[in-house]
Amino acid sequence: MSTAFSLAPLFRHSVGFDRFNDLFESALRNESGSSYPPYNVEKHGDDSYRIVIAVAGFQEDDLDLQVERGVLTVSGGKRERSDESITFLHQGIAQRAFKLSFRLADHIEVRNAGLQNGLLNIDLVRIVPEEAKAKRIPINGQRAALEN
């Protein structure tokens, strides 16, 4: 029995929202992705967001952030350290490789990223250009009828 259903009827009376259908369908799919490393997505204001990823044991050189076609990809992999003087009796801090992807909404840009106390903070901001902002459309029907 399939749990997938079509959202096409919802989009019959919309214009330019065809991308949302794909986004909803991908969100509804139960992807078997790992929950490692844990992360939070925070909203700090109307146009300000932050992604916080727990990356204990990783250093800045071990992490890579990229934005391509509206997708923020964060990947990490522990590089081999040649320190023969350390012998682990118990190694409970997971330092396995990971890759997280976040689809960014339109006009969302990555402002900066910082690593502090084992947390990777990625600050995002929504910058809407003037031509994309809502604008009031005057109704000139009555004025045009009076001028004739």
From TrEMBL:
Which superkingdom does the taxonomy of this entry point to?
Answer: Bacteria
Q: Which organism is it from?
A: Metapseudomonas boanensis
This protein is called Hsp20 family protein
Q: Which Gene3D superfamilies is this protein grouped with? A: 2.60.40.790
**Domain SHSP span(s) in chain numbering:** 30-142
Q: To which protein family does this belong?
A: Belongs to the small heat shock protein (HSP20) family.
Q: Which Pfam families match?
A: HSP20
Query: In the UniProt record, does the keyword Ligase occur?
Result: no
Q: Which UniProt keywords apply?
A: Stress response
